[in-house]
Amino acid sequence: MSTALLRLIALLFLLPPPLRHYLSPASGGRASQLNVKHPIILLPGFSCSNLEARLTDEYAPSQPRCGALKGQGWFPLWNDTWAIVNHDYLPCFEEQMSLVFDPILDDYRNIPGVETRVPDFGSTHGITSKNDAGRNEFCLIKLRDELEALGYRDRDTLFGAPYDLRHAPPPPGQPSRVYSDYFARLVELVEHASDKNGGKPAILLGHSFGGRVLLDFVTSTPLPWRQRFIKHLFLVSPTTPTGFMLALTNLASGSSVVQLPTVSSLALRSMWRTFASSLLSMPAPRVFGRRPLVITKERNYSAYDYPDFLAALGFSANGIVPFVKRVLPTMVRIDAPMVPTTYINGVGVQTAEQVMYLDGNFDVATETVYGDGDGTINAASILAFAKEVGTQHRRNNDIPFKFVKIPNATHAGIVIEKHPLARVMAELLEANS
Ligand SMILES: *[C@@H]1O[C@H](CO)[C@@H](O)[C@H](O)[C@H]1NC(C)=O
Ligand SMILES: *[C@@H]1O[C@H](CO)[C@@H](O)[C@H](O)[C@H]1NC(C)=O
Ligand SMILES: *[C@@H]1O[C@H](CO)[C@@H](O)[C@H](O)[C@H]1NC(C)=O
């Protein structure tokens, strides 16, 4: 028996009845029937997309060695994190990865002389772990393997849409050169995937930050286009617009998602804070209210106090502008996707809910209070997002919306571990039937 068939049989036990019936040998179903009904496009989590850089004459390196690759063409800047450490490239990496908010452009850009691009757009094989030592499968690699075992093929029926992790989808009306370009390419990719597959609309799946990018992409497209080209949307543990505590601790002490082996998060903190994406997912006032989220000796900060919180972290008045213009508007409203959607998230995992910095700095939390969630996203945020999207879909001709809570599935584990992954696959195959 082929491995593909064995996998399929293993999956059958977790499938909802209609599909199980459809696929079960007793009903005359064959594995080949499963083969590719609708093309699938994957958007992975935060650290998974690669980034390449090119240094031009305009680049004035802070240290001579950072200019070594000047004029040498494209090279991988964010790909193999061990290479950065082993080549002692860390200060250069930080400088070349950093963004600047340019008040004249009213947009984020690279520092002068650094050009960047995301390679392998369209493929799921350009989505890689940055560190061979572990967390390999976080980047939808197992999910991709499952789909390939069922007959899906890269760039034919299965596609990847890697993105520049440093940028964030802007609210309507705010310019983002990077996102204008990315969304235009994603429109083309969805249309291409559909064309290549007999005009069938595509299934779009995003995990973690990829889910947020996907949500904002879908709501940026005209409704008739969505209805024509999107069969189903899957948001798997998306970093929702309702926000989560970890976004605050990442800003305070350095990111838990952009990491280099042997380098502390704190060492990368100043680079992290230049990213548009670092400001995006703070807990939204509408969900977290006035309860203190960050506690210091001098004062407490709730979801209503972000400008003060950012100032306390050391952001200049100009540094707070992009938060006010580009992030605040995204916190006050949620636009539901208005296409059939399945929202899958873990719950029942210990998740930070309040942090204290009582040492007079933000380098290390002195105490953390935990509550429910998926280890990253707070349960209150997950439930509020589900409720809001569900309500909007119901009011609009009852557009299908399914909310699947998986007990004990962690933010990353949901696409790695056997049981939650099987559930995600089952939902995906049901939408594909
Ligand atoms: C990216 O890193 C992987 C190892 O994680 C390596 O196999 C691959 O060749 C790298 N890509 C480039 C363009 O260097
Ligand atoms: C901050 O919040 C904590 C916990 O709710 C409370 O005990 C403390 O008095 C507050 N501190 C200030 C300065 O408001
Ligand atoms: C979730 O984990 C807790 C603690 O380990 C355990 O008691 C509970 O049975 C688990 N629930 C499920 C549905 O697996």
Largest sheet: 6 strands, parallel
Number of spatially distinct domains: 1
The set of bound ligands, ions and cofactors reads: 2-acetamido-2-deoxy-beta-D-glucopyranose
Class from secondary-structure proportions: alpha/beta
CATH superfamily: Alpha/Beta hydrolase fold, catalytic domain
Class in CATH?
Alpha Beta
> What's the overall average pLDDT, rounded?
91
Distance between the termini: 24 Å
Keywords: Signal
GO molecular function, one term: O-acyltransferase activity
Signal peptide: 1-21
Organism: Triticum aestivum
Explain what you see:
The chain is α/β, with parallel strands linked by helices and 433 residues long. The protein has a single domain (40-432), classed as Rossmann fold (3-Layer(aba) Sandwich), CATH 3.40.50. It is 36% helix and 17% strand. It contains 16 helices and 15 strands. The strands form 4 sheets. A 6-stranded parallel sheet has the order 7-1-8-9-12-15, sandwiched between helices. A 4-stranded mixed sheet has the order 11-10-13-14, covered by helices on one side. Strands 3-2-6 form a 3-stranded antiparallel sheet. The longest helix has 20 residues, at 177-196. It is globular. The two termini are 24 Å apart. Mean pLDDT is 91; it is low at 1-6 and 11-33. The structure holds 2-acetamido-2-deoxy-beta-D-glucopyranose (3 copies). One of its GO terms (biological process) is lipid metabolic process. This is Lecithin-cholesterol acyltransferase-like 1. Keywords: Signal.
